[in-house]
Write a structure and sequence with these properties.
Shape: globular
Strand order of the largest sheet: 1-2-3-4-5
Helix content: 40-55%
Radius of gyration: 27 Å
Largest sheet: 5 strands, antiparallel
Number of helices: 27
Distance between the termini: 45 Å
Mean pLDDT: 86
Strand content: 5-15%
Structural class: alpha+beta
Low-confidence stretches: 432-442
């Protein structure tokens, strides 16, 4: 049986790989990696590695690797379907029958229909006689009726089951409403609305379907916001508010905000390229989604400490993409909504135009709290700045910012640059001696065993591996290089087959996480793919790097097609295999 992406995604989400493996392996966790003694072969030094962020594992001793399904399959010595069944039982999911895909599609259609009808209900209630206080709330916040209608805003009445009764009259069952997180069971067995006495913000996907809601109180009571939990049609870590509107613009810049009202205020002021995350910290999945629609992100987070911390976290995530990142320095108000109301569009445009790069933002935050009129303040500010710049590992940026720091604090540029270089070297030594980094050192013999052609076409194979790793972590790269690459450019059959699968999934706008390859690759090949996936931390992850790989692959193939080994001199023969 072949399972749908949706089913496998939910199965993975409900079965955290650490929780599944922990009963079998004594694990030591460090950051986003966990290690222990491999359960599949005898060893004294831990080489079994779990990549928590990717929900995958790999043993650098025996080469076994894969996802949570692969682990259960191997540890229990059962087949793929049996492993899926075991995990489904573990988390309370029903194993799909042969008609599952169709049933799931029908379920999703019903949930989307329920969300659409709920949005109509909330919107009608907002403009009805019982919605006056909610409508006044929006109007007092400076929104026009046109803007309210454009975003489909609404009001959930202050009643326990108003939506529930309305939806039942239109043929929706309690179970469907609970699945859509529009209703929930109470402790005493009753069913009530999830959203009550809140202004409502419908969340609309790129196809125009209502997939979820955010609800805000009308006063300062807590919780301030209630948001739809994950459902079969909605994953908050993957969605972006107002991207359905922002994607229509011709600009290749998006403004990333913290909240719904900031986005709506931006749009009403004419900045229709504003978007926001959905009730959760900004995620790598959201960053990848945004990278399909822009080349630059301007962060416009609140100027309080919480907002600045959130901006710092978002910068770390966005730095792993090819997007340019700038940060708007808000002044005159606590958030964009307040600034636009006080000073208007022109001042907001000035603030966006003056947005600084992420390095400047980090340095400005480093300066906070230090009195630069004192030697103590200068030294501490410099030490913190040096730590930040050493992470860049970019001599050009070192030179630029060392000059700025020198002018700012009166310390010579040479002294600052020397300290940056020293700190960067210390950082590299620490990383190279870290046990987890050592564990990630690739063993060519293991790769050659899984991909036998690799030994014969080593230079081309390494370029292929780098390219595949980059595409898996940056699917948006594919559309920028697809015209320069074909399957025939691959020298090894395994890499060619993996590329074909990855390319097809990206073309179909399907995810390329390790979970979805379980039915297309053998266990050994899946382990090989985990190795490729884990390479990205040591790569540049840039379009330029991908293009270099393509050039190398094509050159290697051309050289083999034109060179006649029998006509090579001894020096040419030796040189050919040293490349």
């Amino acid at each position: 049986m072949r399972f749908s992406d949706e089913f496998l995604s939910e199965l993975k989400d409900r079965n955290n790989i650490l929780d599944v493996i922990s009963p079998y392996v004594d694990l030591r966790v460090s950051g986003s990696i966990a290690r222990g003694l491999c359960p599949f072969h005898n060893e004294r030094t831990p080489s079994f590695t779990i990549y928590i962020n990717n929900q995958s594992f790999y043993c650098f001793g025996c080469g076994v690797g894969g996802n949570v399904i692969t682990f259960v399959k191997n540890i229990e010595n059962i087949g793929f379907t049996e492993a899926v069944s075991l995990l489904a039982d573990k988390c309370g999911m029903a194993l799909p029958a042969d008609g599952y895909d169709d049933s799931l599609a029908k379920q999703k259609r019903r949930l989307l229909e329920a969300n659409r009808e709920a949005a109509r209900f909330y919107n009608r209630y907002l403009f009805g006689p019982d919605g006056k206080k909610a409508l006044d709330y929006f109007l007092d916040r400076g929104l026009t009726v046109e803007t309210i209608r454009h975003f489909g805003l609404g009001y959930a009445p202050d009643k326990w089951d108003a939506l529930l009764r309305y939806m039942k009259q239109r043929g929706f069952s309690e179970s469907e409403l609970i699945s859509a997180d529009l209703a929930r069971k109470t402790k005493n067995g009753g069913t009530i609305d999830v959203f009550r006495n809140r202004v409502m913000f419908p969340i609309i996907d790129l196809k125009g379907s209502v997939i979820a809601f955010g609800g805000r109180v009308l006063d300062d009571s807590k919780p301030k916001y209630v948001n739809t939990s994950d459902t079969p049609v909605y994953k908050k870590s993957r969605g972006v508010f107002a991207l359905n509107f922002a994607k229509r613009g011709t600009e290749r810049t998006l403004i990333l905000c913290e909240g719904y009202m900031d986005v709506i205020a931006y749009h009403q002021a004419g900045f229709t390229n504003a978007v926001a995350g959905l009730g959760t910290a900004f995620t790598q999945e959201q960053a990848k989604l945004l990278s399909r629609y822009c080349d630059e992100i301007i962060l416009s987070y609140d100027n309080d400490e919480a907002g600045q911390r959130a901006a710092g976290r978002a910068i770390q995530i966005l730095s792993k993409t090819t997007l340019r990142v700038r940060v708007a320095r808000l002044h005159g108000g606590k958030d964009p909504d307040e600034i636009i109301k006080k000073y208007g569009r022109e001042e907001m445009q000035n603030i966006l135009n003056a947005a600084v790069g992420n390095v400047e933002f980090d340095l400005q935050r480093a300066k906070a709290g230090f009195d630069l009129t004192t030697d103590y303040g200068k030294v501490n500010y410099l030490n913190r700045s040096v730590e930040l710049l050493a992470r860049l590992n970019n001599p050009i940026q070192w030179d630029v910012y060392a000059s700025r720091l020198s002018a700012e604090v009166g310390v010579t540029k040479e002294a600052i640059t020397a300290q940056i270089e020293k700190t960067a070297k210390q950082k590299r030594r620490r990383e190279s001696s870290d046990g987890f980094k050592k564990a990630a050192t690739f063993n060519d013999d293991m790769l050659n065993k899984i991909n036998p052609e690799r030994r014969q076409f080593l230079y081309a194979a390494k370029a292929e591996e780098t390219l595949l790793s980059s595409l898996i972590h940056n699917p948006d790269f594919y559309f920028k290089i697809k015209d320069k690459l074909s399957e025939e450019d691959f020298s090894t059959e395994l890499n060619r087959r993996i590329f074909k699968i990855v390319a097809q999934r990206i073309e179909e706008q399907r995810p390329v996480e390790i979970t979805y390859f379980s039915e297309d690759l053998s266990d050994e090949e899946l382990g090989y793919l985990v190795r490729l996936e884990s390479m990205h931390e040591n790569l540049g992850n840039t379009i330029g790097e991908c293009l270099d790989c393509i050039k190398r692959m094509q050159k290697e193939k051309q050289d083999r097609n034109t060179k006649n080994p029998g006509q090579m001199t001894d020096e040419e023969w030796a040189s050919f295999f040293k490349r």
